[in-house]
Amino acid sequence: MSGTRIVGLVPWLPWPLNRSPWWTAPVRAERLAALRIGLAVLFLADVLLYYGPWLPVFYGANSLGDPEVFAWVCRAPRWSWTPLRSVHSLAVIEVAFAFWIVTGVGLLLGFWTRCCAAVSWALSVSLSNLNPYVENAGDEVRTIILFYLMLSPCGAVWSLDAGQGREREVVLVPPWPLRLLFVQMVLIYFMNGLYKAGGADWQAGDSLYYVLADLTLARWSYAQLPLPVPLTRWLTWLILGWELAFPALMLAPGLAGALTDRLRCPDPWRRGLRRAATALRTAGLLFGVAFHVGIALCLEIGMFAPYMLCLYLPLLPWERWADRHVTDSRVGCSTER
Amino acid sequence: MVAPQLPSPDVPDVPTRRVALGLFVIGQLVFLVTANLLRWVDSLRPRLKEKEWVKVIAPDWVAETGHVYDAMHVVSGLTRRWSQLTGQPQNWSLFAPVVADHVPFPAVELRWTAEAPPRSVWVLSDNEPEDVRAFFRIGKFRLRRYESVLSLGLWRGEHQLDEVADGWRQRIERLVRQEGAAIQAYCRWRGEEYRRRHAERPPPTEYVLWMRVYHTPPPDDLPDPWLWRGPEVWPVARWRPAEKPPAGHGAVEMYHPVARRFEYLR
Lengths: 337, 266
What we know:
The structure holds 2 protein chains of 2 kinds.
Chain A: E1 3-6, H1 21-24, E2 27-28, H2 29-51, H3 55-58, H4 90-109, H5 113-130, H6 137-151, E3 169-173, H7 176-197, H8 200-204, H9 207-212, H10 229-262, H11 267-298, H12 304-310, H13 318-336
Parallel strand pairs in A: 1-3
Antiparallel strand pairs in A: 2-3
Helix pairs in contact in A: 2-4, 2-6, 4-5, 5-6, 6-12, 7-10, 10-11, 11-12
Chain B: H1 15-48, H2 52-57, H3 59-62, H4 66-86, E1 102-111, E2 120-124, H5 141-149, H6 161-197, E3 206-215, E4 229-239, E5 252-256, E6 261-264
Antiparallel strand pairs in B: 1-2, 1-3, 3-4, 4-5, 5-6
Helix pairs in contact in B: 1-4
């Protein structure tokens, strides 16, 4: 690597955030790029598979999303908006969808990246408000990710915008978009846990049984593949416990570090405790991945699981892969010579 | 910890822009936490308002009065509007707090009053499996989302109709009042889909929205072999395109399960 460069505006942050390296130390741009590319792939699949074939059913005059049906969505005191609010013509909606696909390709390739993210976010919000009844939490996650991509230098690497010949540079970006998205992810799980904790079915351990047996959601008939009730009961409690513990699991390495520093623990203890806390955090994240893969296999709830998994992409050390790739290509060059 | 020495960013270091971005980051952080927690706290009120200790600690909040309640109301309003403006709704409660043991599918009955038979055709939901004992589902989740808004889990079970009818009336009335336009759009779409396959048929004169409701057996009392009960089939609403509703009434009639007839709603 020949140099280091920071791309994007570094925000001024007040205390205590400005004392925390987690909020201030720039991160490798590959992590943001991986989020962008992952989202673009899923977004294009979503648009082509789940929206495209249903356009005339969901949007335009005399459809399920007839402008008269959802006139209330953009009415005061709500601040919801869509420039397509009074559009009755399906052709106009189709043009908007074509634009949406183009912005998805732009995001994938990193061409006019932030502009594509901005238009894509605007269309995502617009279409959600045009017929909110066909959207689910997965679509909300998509719009939120697009919101942060639009505001961050997500095309700094692995993009056409980044240009050629800069592979040997280490590119860093300010960490705030990834940190806010991580806070959002923690809150998604924790709030789910809080709401579930108040539900009688979750306390009794019956929820997963009823969800898997829900005829409207299940991917296959529960009568074909009935899971033992004790298993679904334990899984129900495990999911509830994991969601409630998610913030603590994610904070574990930081807390362990602070605790061992304050108590002035001997080095072996310090290392051991930090390693255990990091393992706990990793286990929490791996459980999350397994949870979403399980949901996607058992329930037809569209793109919720894939979009949620997208939030895990910036947590992977993509820079190692990128650095190895650069080293390999250098080795390749010298061999040719 | 000392931060490593880093190069200057590509973007010129303009203090105003950095401060503005910092304020945005702080604002987002505050928004995320408050929007989620306030909504959750609000959801607790119906369950907590009868608790003595809550009446002692926060009597005004329970009664929806006072400074704390007002402040929370204002902050909730602000976070809701920001979430609407930026497309960041914070309603994270998947399958919570309760899950349903009654599983409804909407169905539309198309009726013709003065036509050659058939005078009535049922169009079932695309999401309702032909054989509930064996199916594999892929796609159509957006249609299912739409249908879920129009669905009511009306399950009589072992009860007499009179025992459940009044509760059902309230639920049906609420649904038709809130979603009358969506019910009308759904019925119309169902009729058009049918006529696409049967071009010789004229437009129906009546559309009746029914619920086909299955019941999941409780986990402590599993039948052998395991199977859902039902479906029970109940009418919910009717739309007659050619009929002009009385002045000030909606176009969609609700089914009144006590009187056992359809009625316009004012």
